[in-house]
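We emphasize that the prediction below concerns an isolated chain of 328 residues; any contacts that depend on oligomerization or on bound cofactors are therefore not represented. The input was used exactly as deposited, without trimming of termini.
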Amino acid sequence: MSRQMMEPAIVFAAVNKALAATMSFVPRNLALIFVVMVLAETLVVMGVMERLSFIGQPLVCWCRLPPESVLCLVTACGSVLAANAMVGGFYRDGRFTSKEAFLAALLNGVPEYLRNFFLWSVPVAVPLLGVRVGLVYVLVFWSTAFVQLAVTVLLSRFLLEPGEKAGLVDSDPLAATGRLSLVNAIKKAVRQRGHLILRLGGTLTLVTFLVCLAMELGLFAPLEGWFAAFGQIVGLPPAATAPLVAYAAQPLAGMAAAGSLLHEGVLDVHQGVVAVLLGGIIMLPMLTLRWRLPNYTAIFGLKLGFLLTLAGLLVAVVVRAGFLAIVI
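Result of the prediction step, given as a token string:
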């Protein structure tokens, strides 16, 4: 850290910005995690799990995961954060082992890539980047989903023993007989999750603040410069440095900058593909530090959360690096 960065005024400003970013991020995500945990517990108590089991049951059985994973996988089609909050709740309740929680969370990440195909790739990437470069971008997303699914299945076959898992059974006899009302089920879920959310809130706040503070102090700036220099090594013109650095700050900004250079003829199609792939590799560590690491460590604890963060990052980076090696 330079002397200028050590000046109290600069550090104070960085702390204020980090606090502001933390306060804008943590309460919203913490509220979502709490609501989803209560909802998950309520659905389990009310027996909804059994009625939804047919949707993801074949894949969950193939991965040798507990039946609770079905509800998590269905939820992941709408929100990965919500699905992982469910997994974290089951893990802390002892319904999942650490291996099962790890693999269930990896499986939850697969629908995210498929959902982004409709919400992000087709309506945003293709218009900005053009058909040929945009289709490569789409292919990367599909390939990442397939690789993550394959990794999850292979690890589950290696780490988990085959055998029938017991269904969801609540210790409350009223729940077991279906006589627990919706109101009472929600009250019970709130009581069970209240203390847990306080512990999660402390972890999420601390990790988010430290990451935001490090970024405000410029501790990750050398990474951006290194990736920009690497772009020139792989044959990109100096003008491509702008979208590469923009990717580190905001993926949409990087994509828009690359699309502009393609439209103006500064980059040809091959260089555009290289820029998008390299920009994606730049984006992933930054996205992981800003979003995944705080959320995963809050939900699963430091050790398991870090391992999940690292696993998801490695899968996405390896896929993009593989495409990059092919096109260079």
